[in-house]
Write a structure and sequence with these properties.
The complex is a heterodimer of chains A (about 450) and B (about 475). With about 450 residues, chain A is an alpha+beta fold. In chain A, about 40% of the residues lie in helices and about 20% in strands. Chain B is built from 18 helices and 12 strands. The chains are: A alpha+beta (about 450), B alpha+beta (about 475).
Amino acid sequence: MKQICLIGLFTLFWSLAMAQERQLVSLDYEQFRLSNGLTVVLQRDTRVPMIAMQVWYNTGSASEPSGSHGFAHLLEHLMFEGTPHQEPGEFDRLVESAGGVSNALTSYDHTYYYTYLPSNALDLMLYLESDRMGYLGEAITAEKLDRQREVVKNEYYYNYESKPGGKKAILMSGLLFPEGHPYHHPVIGNFDDLDAAQPADITAFFKRFYHPGNASLTIVGDFDLAYARSRIEYWFGGLKGGALSSKIPTPATQITEPSYAVLEDNVEAAQLVLQYPTPPVFAEGDAAMDVLAQLLGKGRSALLYRKLVTELQLAYDLRVKHQSHELSSYFEISATARPGVALKTILGVIDAELSGIKGQAPEEDALIRAVNQIELNWLKNMQSFDRQAFNLSYYYWKKGDPAFINEDFNRYTSLKVADLSRAAREFLRTDRRAVLSIVPKGQSELGIESNPDPARKK
Amino acid sequence: MRNLYVLLFLLWTGKSVLAQEVDRSVPPVPGKAEALKLPEVKSFTLSNGLRIFLLENNALPLIQFQLMFNAGSVFDPADKSGLSNLVFDLVDDQTADRAPEAWADALDYLGVELESFSRAEQGGIRLFTPLSRVEPALDLLAAMLLRPDFPEGAIAQKKQSQLLRLTQEYSNARLLAAQAMRTLLYGKDHPLGKRFAGSKKSLEAISRTDVLEFADTFIRPQNAYLVVAGAIGEADLQALLEPRLQNWTGGQWHALAIPPPADTVHYKRLYILDVPEKQQTELRFIQLGPGAATEDYFAVQVMNTILGGTFASRLNLSLREKKGLAYGAASGFYFPSAYGYFVAQANVKGDVTGVAIRAFLEEFEGMSAVSTDEFERALSFLTNSFPKKFESLQSSAEEISRIVCYGLPHDFLCTYNASLQQLQLEDIKSAAARYILPQQMIVLAVGDRATIEAQLRELNLGPAAVLEVWDVLGDQP
């Protein structure tokens, strides 16, 4: 297997001639499909003798009908627990002995498995990924399930119970996405459903969603392309394929009025969290919302940060992000209040600032700053094999084409300031958002229980 | 290992029909790994005495600068804890020619990242820029160094934010545990035991004069070194830096000198830090360890990889996979210039605190035996994952910075894997015997006393000292 050539062509080249002297880096990759339906994306990058390998499955928590909330993530855990050919624990032992680290992530829309390891372990990793893709379903036992159920519960305690304000993520998906929406329930699920899970249920979930026709394999790093192609064919080629699954059991609906919740928690300062439903990833308005998040809240030149934190000094911090998903995305603004500041005062300032942007487009410079920051992040990510493997897989699944990795940035450079105003008007609506107040115990009066100004309500 | 293979084979033959023509009974064994070809680190000195270390890497049109000062929290005056934090919080906010707003606009418009930070031993400034913007980016860095500005109003505002961070420690068990373990290990007035962000009292004691003096003393070229990683050669770099920084002068090297921990520290103790009604317990097992330049560095790293450094390590397998007590359990060594520490940790439900402590102690005791197989796996993990350190420019710069900061051998990175390969199983056992001493550890449980005290009594580890939050953090601001 020592065919890895060290001199090889750089698959990266600098493209220096873009508009505004942008120095983006284009990626050259190859894509093909095995006869069983597995999509493969390979990109060579010889900076270090390592590879990042990712396997994405076209399923996530949005695939779970009611009664099975949390199964996608539970299965993600079981994927590390052995197959008919691998004892439990052997997967991690083999990966680590090779010098690698491996983990996985379940989201609403996808479940992906990522490993970063030395180039010489390419064949080992293809073996392990193909083995669990093909055979894991036969090895899900009650004992393994019980153990991982406990681990998942501990994960819940660790992530949501033991941190001040940790329940935020759980509460927000319930507030923003109405009952019946595939994103209404949190990815980690609920204890009732987890407790009811039987090996046969998880095996059925596995059989339905985990097969070559519903998966992609991406490798980025220092490896020989021809060798990789032949080993991929060898290990994955014999696995039984299937059609791409339709993964959403129920249609997505929108909230039609603002929803409010107050969480009394073990926090020292009150926090306000706002979420607005925004268009699906890559839909019209998605890029504008990305830029608005940057322009309003990221970096010290951001407009809303400047207003709330620097100028009026009502909040200690301000965070704004736009999180894109396949059915509906969300735009989140969160702020931590200074002592004695009521959250409705902060909400008032946010609403006034947003209403300013809706009425009058921000200055050209503000847009340039925001796009430059997005570009800088992009360049920073170029250094990471993991990140490149993520991006190629992401564009394949969300946009149908990894090639979009080289075009995505144009969505931002082509925006005009008027687009931002229009998107703010359309999506940052006071009558359609989730408002969560996290307040210190016994201080619920700091929170916002319902619409403070009913007249504005439609 | 052999037994396991036999077992796998039996399982496989039973299911052979499913494996079709591909033989999955034995995993492929990776061949010899490609060694990372590290370019030489070049070094030169500017006319102002600033030492430059360059790792040229032309793969991407990007450059990372990391300017480090011996000016971390350990250099705070005794009654002015939090000063280093405050100064480095202010440094990247404005200059004499640009107020905060104009400064932030300039940085973000240019599209570069320029930020300062303070750690226990060092403070620093980090600049990340595309090659195409390196000149204006360095102009901004030079402005920060030549024309810093610390107006009264900005100081007051930063103090307030720092106070909030302090306040948040009172309700966040993880932050509380992190502070409590250092206080218990070193004593609360020790440079590594105190609160790096200070206290309400120490922040109040800090005047603008203190800020100016600290910056004037420590943020100087002769108390600094600059690590550069990225797409630039030595001559070009020198030509960019010399004219911009030649008027930034003076200072002297402030060597790191960590004193021994206070002799009031009681090791071998069980502590409950009472957070009433808390459902989970944060567990910490801590003891002093070696400093960064220890000759045991590699043996300790291998030993810790076996104990708690990775997912498949003993602690995680026991606490998470076998016993289902925690989402994860891990351990690590922290290596400052001297008097480092070992910490093992997990977050567990309150009602299994005692069981979890016992599980940890069993794993510590168990380190007296290490198998050849485990040893080889850990060695292989550390050897083969080494190139990852050089994947990003920032992490490359950090690796080089560590060598300069702690005076490690210049060939430390070039001989990294050779040093690992020289180790014998006996070295690992010996490292475990010297650095993992369950009888002398501080066991700290941050959680609800009412739930956990009786469980701890059953462990027969002696009486538990009970602490309140303010014993560790002082009165709430």
